[in-house]
Amino acid sequence: MNEAVPSVVAIDIGTHKVSVLIGKVHAPDNIQVIGMATARNRGMNKGKIVSLDKVITAIKNAVQEAEDMAECRVHSAWISIPSAELKSFYASGRTPIENSEHTITTSEVVRALELAKASHLTSDHYLVSAVPLGFELDDSAEWVQNPIRMSAHSMIGHYQLMMLPISTMQNLDRALKGANIGVEKMVVSCLATAEASLLKDEKEYGACLVDIGAGTTNIAVYLDGRLALTHTLQRGGEHVTRDIAAVLQTTTEEAERIKLLYGCVDLKVVKPDHMIQFQGIDGPQTISRIELAEIIIARYEEILTQVHQELQRNGAIHGLYHGVVLTGDASQIEGMVNLARHMLGVSAHLGNPPVQVYAEEQNQAALRRSQYATAAGLLMFSQSDTQDTIVESTDPEKMSIFKRVGRAWSALNNQLKSIF
Fold first, then answer.
1. Of 63, 69, 249, 258, which is the most buried if we count CB atoms within 10 A?
2. d(CA 148, CA 104)
């Protein structure tokens, strides 16, 4: 690798896989992937580490394959933080501006964050991200994005805080050390995925990223270019696989195989006479594709119902002018876009592959697969202004955020009244 061109490495640690991208940074919006790989991760279940050794093996395998392709060695990387146990909520901190000129400095901004954290942090949780939503000067209804050097007598900092159990962070740190990988920076996986999958206009005018992975489904709502809500559901693609295995009395491996080959969540596109052969526990079996689809649809409807309830409970569903963007391996199943539109009542489409991250022609198609979306987002995150997020479900106080973050939410009902 030509060391004259800056490089960056991204490692996404998921429930079923570890994905690695090695990129040359020609410009912040021009990152060429020269090494890429995925490895099966057998050390996690439902987004949690259950076997440290197996996670270390998965990281090593993926890194080594990417290294061989890029003809380099990886010593440190940007890391996505699995969000199965993520706690996320809105918080604010008010501080006076006490210097003689009443000029806001970095000290006041830090103090506002410390005050916002104070009432939420617990001894068994670690603050992994504090996304600044805006700063309120002298109780003004209009927030500013960068208050440094501005004048005011008081300032309120508004944040989306994200926390994880300290034990989770310790286990992740041990896994990376065991794989001999240093950490450039850690980013919550849903933030990295959103960086790769959402367009700027979608973030500005209101969109919800629904990332359906193997063990969890992550929700991230953006408005006015800022994160307004995150939430994690303990449901994902592996639950669909288990449903199939249980109903058809087959192994999880066989259930996964027929799900990937024949899975569908739209009965309108399934031919009534389409039959599927599979290996059951008691021998060869046959099932119609319609019956298989009905098993799968039941679980996806449960997931999307929970997504809708979370968005409705926070009033967010009314502000999604650019609808829902679907990403994650489990969202790629046939008919998913139509099912999401029907269940959520808003427009929906699959995530947009980032044009800023690209590879040579023979690797471009593989790079565009959903399994690399979070890692691609990490590469972009490393070069963007978004990385000023500080290094976390639902406190009723955070509902006021939707009224204040952007004017596009002006039509929301009375449940979004400000508490300030």
1. 63
2. 5
Query: In 3D, which of 335, 241, 320 has the Cα closest to residue 46?
Result: 241
Of 49, 17, 43, 51, the closest CA to residue 167 belongs to 49
324-327/207-212 β-pairing: parallel
Going 132 to 138 to 140 to 146, the CA torsion angle's sign is negative
Contacts 24+ apart (CB under 8 A), 171-177: 171/49, 171/52, 172/13, 172/49, 172/79, 172/81, 172/82, 174/52, 175/13, 175/43, 175/49, 175/52, 175/55, 175/56, 175/59, 176/59, 176/79
Residue type, 106: T
Supply the Cα-derived Rg of the chain in whole angstroms: 22
Burial bucket for residue 32 (CB in 10 Å: 0-12, 13-18, 19+): middle
Its sign, for the CA torsion 174, 178, 181, 187, is negative
Task: Provide the pLDDT for residue 88.
Answer: 81
Residues contacting 359, CB < 8 A, separation 6+? 32, 33, 34, 36, 366, 367
Beta bridge partners of 9: 22
Listed in sequence order, the residues at least 6 apart from 115 whose beta carbon sits closer than 8 Å to its beta carbon are 93, 94, 95, 157
Q: Which residues pair with 76 in a beta bridge?
A: 182
pLDDT at 236: 92
pLDDT at 328 over 60: yes
pLDDT at 161: 87
408/110: higher pLDDT: 110
351-409 pLDDT per residue, tens: 988 899 999 999 999 999 989 999 999 999 898 754 444 333 333 333 333 443 333 23
Q: At what angle do helices 289-313 and 237-248 cross, to 10 degrees?
A: 140
In tens, the pLDDT along 242-269 reads 999 999 999 999 999 999 999 999 999 9
Q: pTM (2 decimals)?
A: 0.81
Q: Which residues pair with 183 in a beta bridge?
A: 77
